[in-house]
Design goal:
Layout: H1 5-17, H2 28-38, E1 43-46, H3 54-64, E2 69-73, H4 78-86, E3 91-94, H5 99-116, E4 124-127, E5 130-133, E6 138-141, E7 144-146, H6 150-160, E8 167-168, H7 169-177, H8 185-199, E9 204-207, E10 211-214
Parallel strand pairs: 1-2, 2-3
Antiparallel strand pairs: 4-5, 5-6, 6-7, 8-10, 9-10
Helix pairs in contact: 2-3, 4-8, 6-7, 6-8, 7-8
Length: 218
Amino acid sequence: MEDEPTIARAVADRLTAEGFAVETAGDGPSAVERARSYEPDLIVLDVMLPGFDGLEVCRRVQAERSVPVLMLTARDDETDLLVGLGVGADDYITKPFSMRELVARVRTVLRRFERAEAPAAPDVLRLGPLEIDQRARRVRRDGHEVHLTPTEYDLLGCLVRNPGTVLTRALLLEQVWDWADASGTRAVDSHVKALRRKLGADLIRTVHGVGYSFEVPS
């Protein structure tokens, strides 16, 4: 979803050439409607859209259906990027970008999401107040279902597979985002903040200067 026709066409043409089926939209309302009717496997979404912006598109889309979102932004302000991740985006790329980088990011997000869809045994994990249905990718706390984005779910999964163990931000980036460097540590912090807001602050412990660990309440 991109409001500049030239960029939108270039992105669509390149992704089509790479073998993807592509639908486009030029404003916020039509982007939400297109996502609803087309049910894409991934959304490439510009922050700046007419009608309402990409952040609002992401909120509305994620409220209806969990789908990976790659944000395009011309803003270098770190706060804007973190706000974008907080509404359910899985990754971001800053303009100007190369088409090669865009395609690589798209494939990485899709590969991570597809890999996470294969559940591990047992199908349902129960950890204190949490119940995680790995086959359905659903999470409940104290019996109440909690809506998580794909990346939030994957991050939680990585943490709960290692209860009580401090996982560094670099390791979480590698395991959840497939990033080989530590340039995206703010993305980890943003998603942990979102998990705490949705699941409660008592489950994930911060080890300052190191990373995070999942703690089962006693």
